From TrEMBL:
PANTHER family in the record: CYCLASE-LIKE PROTEIN 2, CYCLASE-LIKE PROTEIN 4
Any GO BP annotation: L-tryptophan catabolic process to kynurenine
Stated family: Belongs to the Cyclase 1 superfamily.
Record's keyword annotation contains Signal: yes
Key words of the record: Extracellular matrix, Secreted, Signal
Chief localisation class: secreted
Record-given protein name: Cyclase family protein
Primary gene name: LOC100274378
InterPro entries in alphabetical order: KFase/CYL (IPR007325), KFase_sf (IPR037175)
Length: 262
């Protein structure tokens, strides 16, 4: 896995066109958004020689046609099977402050499964790994476009029965499954939590057999529930070599999405 997957994970811009119930709040994805929008802190402004307004962190572009729902990377973002979070993943390797450098160069050190990410077919199949099925082989046309946001029952993992009960119409290609993970704000907790909600193997099989879904998004670090994590992945990624199976995407966002968009 390489940097490409990280970059790709940040390029996932999905307009969410249809929503099946849920939160009413807008999506204030960035906890510090207000502070950032109001400009520099006074003390900092006094010290600065040139006053530059703080950047605006946007999640909506083109009047809401494009919504960036990727998760904001933080040091206390959870990592798979770790209680430590992501740690100091971003470092300024070379700094303009030194005088000798003409630019700032930052260095990223992060697993490819951090935050919002897509799984490469080679993630769970050695023959795909060996033949080079990395994230670069995924179809960008599948990764970008209108998506259906679906709320799943909060008291179950995503089983075949749950999938059948959702009545997702034929023809829908991209679905974000919003679960109890979002309610529990799991992406904002540093400690990895094995009780997150995800697909059970039979739920994954039901999706492959009965829907036209080609992009599956789940709101935590894995598409498969912890107890059936690998079996669910195997179902989803099995035919990847023929590009028939859904792309699985850990949307990993705990940010509520504005449900008034349509
Ligand atoms: C220049 O800055 C980098 C990053 O802050 C630091 O690691 C390095 O030691 C500095 N070099 C000097 C000569 O100060
Ligand atoms: C470069 O890094 C320094 C920290 O060493 C920071 O204060 C400065 O704003 C950065 N410059 C640019 C152009 O980003
Ligand atoms: C989902 O499955 C996990 C085990 O993978 C379990 O700990 C959790 O309680 C289940 N969640 C629900 C809502 O049933």
């Amino acid at each position: 896995m390489d940097l490409a997957s990280l970059l790709l994970s940040q390029l996932l811009l999905l307009p969410v066109v249809t929503v099946v119930s849920g939160e009413t709040a807008a999506h204030p994805g960035y906890a510090h958004a207000e502070e950032a929008c109001s400009g520099m802190l006074e003390a900092e402004a006094e010290k600065a020689t040139v006053l530059v307004p703080a950047p605006e962190r946007r999640e909506e572009f083109d009047g809401g046609r494009i919504v960036d729902i990727s998760h904001y990377y933080r040091e206390d973002m959870p990592e798979w099977e770790s209680s430590e979070g992501s740690g100091e993943f971003l470092q300024l390797a070379r700094s303009m402050r030194n005088g000798s450098d003409i630019a700032n160069f930052s260095e990223l050190r992060l697993t490819a499964h951090s935050g919002t990410h897509v799984d490469a077919p080679g993630h769970v199949f050695e023959h795909y790994y060996d033949t080079g099925f990395d994230v670069d082989t995924l179809d960008l046309a599948v990764l970008n476009g209108p998506a259906l946001l679906v709320d799943v029952p909060r008291d179950k993992n995503i089983t075949a029965d749950v999938m059948a009960s959702l009545n997702i119409p034929k023809g829908v290609r991209r679905v974000l499954f919003r679960t109890l993970n979002t309610d529990r704000k799991l992406m904002w907790k540093k400690e990895f939590d094995t009780s997150y909600v995800g697909f059970m193997k039979d739920g994954a099989q039901w999706l492959v057999d009965n829907t036209d879904i080609k992009l599956v998004g789940v709101d935590y670090l894995s598409v498969g529930a912890f107890d059936e994590c690998i079996p669910a992945h195997l179902v989803f990624l099995e035919k990847r070599g023929w590009c028939e199976d859904p792309i699985i995407w850990s949307w990993a966002s705990a940010d509520p999405i504005d449900t008034n968009m349509s």
